[in-house]
Amino acid sequence: MRGLQALLWAQHMLGLFGTTEAGKHNLFVSSFRTRNIFSISYDDETGYMREERSVLGYQGHTWLSFNWNKTVLYASQQDGWSSYMVLPPSLLAQSASVPINRGCQGQNNDPGETSLYVSRLPPYYLYGAGRSACSQVVSVRPDGSLEAVVQTVNYRQSGSFLFSSTNTSRVEGFAMSPDSRWLYSADSRGSGIWITPVDTRGRLGTPSFNPIEMEDIRPRRLALHPSGRYLYVLNRRPNRVFTFEVIQSSGLPPSLRQLDVSIALVPTGWCFHASSRLH
Amino acid sequence: VFPCIFKAPLTITGLAENSYRGSEIQLSEDGRVLYATVRYRERKSDDGDDDRATAKYVTRDTSTVLSQDFLTPVNRTFPGAKKVYSRQAGTNGILTAVLLSEGRPGSFSGGYPIQMLMQASTPTSGGRSNVVKVAPWNNGVFALSDSDRGFVQIWRLDGISGLPPDTVHVPLPALNINWKPQGPPSNIRASIVGEWRAPTSAVGNKAYPNDDDLPDEIIPSGRGCCSNAIWYD
């Protein structure tokens, strides 16, 4: 393992076989059920695409994401997450696979497909969730390999403890503030956004819930503008992206204010939109 | 009057909103363009067939589209399109690109949605994927992954850099992009410029639409390649 790390380091420093031709770009492509991870290239000048390599991963993967400097590829899968070392520009080496902690809110879950978000600031931890009411923090080693689930955080709306079913929340998508201090999570069952503080060790604090007061919208994915000012929420049901203004206040979790702009993803006719407001 | 969002039974193009499910969302690295997709959702047989309509505006620009697939605008033709085809719509996903305000560098004001850049149907339902990933080197170039037929396409949106840099002169009501008509700027132009097909062995088998009770060696439809395609460089 130490030898591999040294090799990777040398490659990144010297670009040993990491040199790319002008106009040629490389992508990694995953498959849901088969273990293939394809490395394909695209030539911007000719439009030519081809398979460069195919490697076998730990499992089929639903989602791929790089770490901050693209030395590691993270992947989500049924029941957990995997990491691969990137050997530029088109090769991968297996490094680790970490199972999800099935325990959530005192119950044993069938986690299903996981989602993931990788912090761009130290300690570069991975934040993920199965199809449950819990987020999980996965630590990484100095080389970026996944290490272990080090924390599980419960998402449950206050007042719902009497009906403490794990069905009240399901976290499906993440975003993180530019300073990596706040983790945003889309909750499709609870119909809102959780905002969770992240400390300097990468651990999560107590989440606070921001409901979206509309029926049956199922927030699914999040994107935060690089400015940190606007949060975009993709909803599963009404096929709309809602836009929220992020209002910062020192020491407190940011608050969300819904804007009148909602983006219709299915072309509709004339439609006046009145949004709900969050405070 | 918000029921309009949820109850619109038919749209001007005959697309039933209920037949789609919000899928994925992604920003370009420079924060100027927001991409979002919906997947086509199989309708139950008792839904009736009224909402399946023919899209009249299907274009293909033979000079730039290298792929065999048609680029299919849902509600309008693209400027400069040379041919118009008619084709049944309703089983395709939809891809939307929205221009965001720029803001000054280092300031705290970028990211407000200004204008629709493109709304086009994807070549397939998307399977379980239909994920857009924007190239790190160009906010108008993106990879679209599909697990219905098992491909990765490269799309290109030209003309973004020629748009006004920011929103200062846009009157406020126009910022609400639900207000129609507000089509894409005339100098925006979309094309599919590349396609890679996964080997058949890695693509879900159309003969097996369901997950249940299948042996491991059979990949059900939509469950093979390609779930996600990300740019290394």
Task: Write up this protein.
- The complex is a heterodimer of chains A (279) and B (233).
- Chain A is mainly β and 279 residues long.
- Chain A contains one helix and 21 strands.
- In chain A, the strands form six sheets. In chain A, strands 4-5-6-7 form a four-stranded antiparallel β-sheet, covered by helices on one side.
- Mean pLDDT of chain B is 66; it is low at 1-14, 43-90 and 167-183.
- With 233 residues, chain B is mostly beta strands.
- Chain B has a five-stranded antiparallel β-sheet with strand order 1-2-6-7-4, with no helix packed on it. A four-stranded antiparallel β-sheet of chain B has the order 8-9-10-11, with no helix packed on it. In chain B, strands 3-5 form a two-stranded antiparallel ribbon.
- Chain B is elongated.
- In chain B, a hairpin with a 6-residue loop joins strand 8 (131-134) and strand 9 (141-146).
- Chain B has one helix at 3-7, and strands at residues 20-27, 33-40, 54-60, 72-73, 83-88, 94-100, 113-121, 131-134, 141-146, 151-158, 189-197, 225-231.
- At the A-B interface, strand 1, strand 2, strand 3, strand 4 and strand 18 of A face helix 1, strand 1, strand 2, strand 6 and strand 7 of B.
- Strand 1 (24-31) of chain A pairs antiparallel with strand 12 (225-231) of chain B.
Topology (SSEs and partners):
The complex is a heterodimer of chains A (279) and B (233).
Chain A: H1 2-14, E1 24-31, E2 36-43, E3 49-56, E4 63-66, E5 72-77, E6 80-87, E7 91-99, E8 103-104, E9 107-108, E10 115-118, E11 126-129, E12 134-140, E13 146-154, E14 171-176, E15 182-187, E16 192-197, E17 208-211, E18 219-224, E19 230-235, E20 240-249, E21 252-264
Antiparallel strand pairs in A: 1-2, 2-3, 4-5, 5-6, 6-7, 8-9, 10-11, 11-12, 12-13, 14-15, 15-16, 16-17, 18-19, 19-20, 20-21
Chain B: H1 3-7, E1 20-27, E2 33-40, E3 54-60, E4 72-73, E5 83-88, E6 94-100, E7 113-121, E8 131-134, E9 141-146, E10 151-158, E11 189-197, E12 225-231
Antiparallel strand pairs in B: 1-2, 2-6, 3-5, 4-7, 6-7, 8-9, 9-10, 10-11
